[in-house]
Amino acid sequence: MGGLTVNTKLLRQILVGFVRDEVYKVGVRKGVLGLSGGIDSALVAYIAAEALGPENVHAYCMPYRTSNPESEAHARLVAESLGINFKVIEITPMIDAYFTITPDADNMRRGNKMARERMTILYDHSAAVGGLVLGTSNKTELLLGYGTLHGDMASALNPIGDIYKSQVWALSEAMGVPSEVIEKKPSADLWAGQTDEQELGFTYREADELLYRMVDQRMSREELIAAGFDPAFIDNVARKVQGSHFKRRLPIIAKVSNRTIDRDFRYARDWGK
Amino acid sequence: MDFTVALAQIKPKLGCLDDNMALAEAAIEKGIAAGADLVVFPELALTGYFLKDLVPEVALRLDSPQIERLKKLSERISIAIGFVEVSSDFRFFNSAVYLEGGEIRHVHRKVYLPTYGLFDEQRYMARGERFRAFDTRFGRIGMLICEDMWHLSAPYILAMDGAMTLLCLSSSPGRGITESEGLGSAAAWQKLTTTTAMFLNCRVFYCNRVGYEDGINFWGGSEAISPSGEMTDRGAILEEDFVLAKVDGGALRRERIFSPMMRDENLAITVKELKRIDREKDC
Questions:
Q1: Cβ of A6 and B179 within 8 Å?
Q2: Using CB atoms within 10 A of its CB, is residue A54 exposed (0-12), middle (13-18) or buried (19+)?
Q3: For B180, phi and psi rounded to 5 degrees?
Q4: ipTM associated with this complex
Q5: In angstroms, how far is CA B64 from the centroid of its own chain?
Q6: Which of A256, A259, B95, B207 has an alpha carbon 20 to 30 Å from A8's alpha carbon atom?
Q7: Three state DSSP letters for B205-235
Q8: Element (H, E) at A233
Q9: Are A83 and A200 in contact (CB under 8 A)?
Q10: CA distances from A11 to A163, A175, B52 (A)
Q11: Span A236-266, pLDDT tens digits
Q12: Is A218 in CB contact (< 8 Å) with chain B?
């Protein structure tokens, strides 16, 4: 089928145009993003630098004391190769201060808190420099719900939310993201040695092959099984997509008037732009 | 008659009538300066596309000052442009107006309003009820608005009504990225414009907008197609452009001599069979 293989030249043109157009029409010239050292944020930095000019991109690396030092090194490598603005802001003091109240919090709560801490910092800096926060969640993560609501999933604009992880790899290669960043195992870097694929229980490539057929091509469960996918894997992924749907929607509003926000009061976000 | 068509591949601002009027007037002046005889704009050029609840707020009556200004300009160049039309009984249409010699020569109200996938037109607009060709100084013309062209019957009706030139005003969103060179939607349209011209021995002028609305891109790629189905001019992909296409008036005559499909088309058989199908449909 090969539907995941894309023309990276055209994809690049669309995504660069998207960032430029949607940032400029808000009336600002700058983009702000968190640079984790991973491939997704590296790719967004490359797109933003091409769209807005490197001097208009502000990247922040926000490590916690348990973060892998290699992540910061990779973030720095990306920033330096692009010539974008780069700053390291440690989140250890804020996170540790918070968890003195609830020292028993598990890894998931700590990870979520860190993701949300980082996003408050990005929004603060977006106001400070006068730019928009660029999202760095890809389509695979968004569909699986593998991200923190109001944390890494928050943003003003997301250039890569409609491309799968496999396509992120391909486009990153085409745009010249450093190979160290492309080749390393994807990790949320919440604790030492963590990898996304270990935590998910399958690889991104496997997930992409299934999600592409399930979501983009709307194949039925029978068709997916006939195509060779394991029924347990299909059900596992389908459950994740369904179970995380709340993360992809705005908060629901109790309807009492004739014209409720989003339900009958409907305008594009680009209203008047 | 030889003439020159300008395809104004503009980037309208969503819901900003004044800005878009300024864009249109600038393109019209550019067309006049370039010696064009007709300037074609995209669908909803005066308003932008994903209007949703803005539809009633940007709608124009045919006697609105904006249309009056365009009428005046049409004394110097013929104009085809898309906008939201409000009727006296407050129905809102996705319309295209053709202006020439200081008058409105024709208004086409989009018949096929896509309401599937990313489209939501039927929710906000009323449906047009007819396809009619009309006379212009370039001979008989038929107008289609985007999705109209995807219904084979629409350009067919216009051709049978005598149209030798088809104007298609479009706001086609780019989607369907694959390994191939262009977007899926662009490739499909390119097949459609050339095939339609070839089957009906008509010239086709396709004008598609550019820009982004809420992350959705419009891919541009406006085209002039000769009556033999050959693409002669194409606008840039994903960028604003202004395409000037020189029309060789003799090419249509020669094509209709070479492949007289329109002459041989049997309208009576078509009508008879369509009536039968309509009768039997409910059985």
A1: yes
A2: middle
A3: -75, 170
A4: 0.92
A5: 22
A6: B207
A7: EEEECEEEECCEEEEECCEEECCCCCEEEEC
A8: helix A231-243
A9: no
A10: 9, 11, 28
A11: 999 999 999 999 998 999 999 999 999 999 9
A12: no
B171 three-state secondary structure: coil
d(CA A144, CA A244): 7
Contact A5 B13 (CB under 8 A): no
Which segments of chain B does DSSP mark as H helices, in order? 17-33, 55-58, 65-73, 121-124, 153-160, 184-200, 249-258, 261-264, 267-281
pLDDT one-digit tens code per residue, A185-235: 999 887 778 899 999 999 999 999 999 999 999 999 999 999 999 999 999
Question: Among candidates B119, B108, B117, B116, which has minimal Cα distance to B83?
Answer: B108
Residue B38 CB partners (closer than 8 Å, separation 6+): B3, B4, B5, B6, B77, B78, B79, B80, B138
Query: A64 — phi, psi (to 5°)?
Result: -105, 165
Decide if B109 contacts B132 (C-beta within 8 A): no
**Distance, CA of A165 to CA of B188 (rounded, Å):** 27
Q: β-strand A30-34 against A131-133: which pairing, if any?
A: parallel
- CA of A167 vs chain B CAs: smallest distance (Å): 11
